[in-house]
Amino acid sequence: MPRPQALFVGGNQSIKGFKEMLRAYDLIRQQADLKLVIVGRLSPADVAAVAQRYGLAHLGPVDVECRPFQDAAGLAGLMRESFCLLHPSYIDNSPNSVCEAQLVGLPVVASGVGGVGSLITEGETGLLCTLAPGSLARQVLRLCHDAALHGRIARQAQAVARERHDPNVIVQRTLAAYQAVCQSAGPAGRANAPAAVAIH
């Protein structure tokens, strides 16, 4: 049976928390048999160089696997194979990787920066952490030690994400916002309010 894998799709970008993620993974592997898969423009030698710099030279190819950038189908397949997504970013708005993971039912552990908090409700549609490696590690270990929590987050995140990204829902919510603005403008605004639209 293949080892469960934690997925990181930020390459070796420091702004995506690459160093923090490696340090957190080193803590995780001491308590859970979890492999790390890193997607991006980097090689095992690149990972080894960073690991060496931060006293993590013992992290080798047995535990850390590098994958090149993936197309949509490849990334979706990789997410379906994974146990969780690690996203300890320093700054973000509405990260595609978090949204995509939720859509396929992959639990996400992410730093609560920028717009991430609008995508994840702690303990319901994902787990939030700080940029401290110990914080990320603790949240991942919660998933490792609580299968019910892992399953619940996977289901709830997928349901919420499917509604959030449904084209008809997006259109109707946008129209509702415009209609509210027109209503506040008085009779002239109401006359110009857009009608409901369906996307097929």
Looking at this protein, list some descriptive labels.
200 residues, alpha/beta, Rossmann fold, 6-stranded parallel sheet, 6 strands, 48% helix, elongated
Quick one: biggest sheet?
6 strands, parallel
Distance between the termini: 42 Å
**Could you name the CATH homologous superfamily of the largest domain?**
Glycogen Phosphorylase B
Helix fraction bin: 40-55%
Please, how many domains? 2
- Give the assembly state of these chains: single chain
Question: Any overview of this molecule?
Answer:
The chain has nine helices and six strands, in the order βαβαβαβαβαβαααα. By secondary structure, it is an alpha/beta fold. The protein has two domains: 160 residues, Rossmann fold, CATH 3.40.50.2000; 35 residues, no CATH class. Strands 3-2-1-4-5-6 form a six-stranded parallel beta sheet, sandwiched between helices. β4, α4 and β5 form a beta-alpha-beta unit. The protein is elongated, with a radius of gyration of 20 Å. The model has no long low-confidence stretch (mean pLDDT 91).
List the helices and strands and how they pair.
Elements: E1 5-8, H1 18-28, E2 35-39, H2 44-53, E3 64-67, H3 72-81, E4 84-87, H4 96-103, E5 108-111, H5 116-119, E6 127-129, H6 133-145, H7 147-164, H8 167-184, H9 187-191
Parallel strand pairs: 1-2, 1-4, 2-3, 4-5, 5-6
GO molecular function, one term: glycosyltransferase activity
Protein name: Glycosyl transferase family 1 domain-containing protein
Keywords: Glycosyltransferase, Transferase
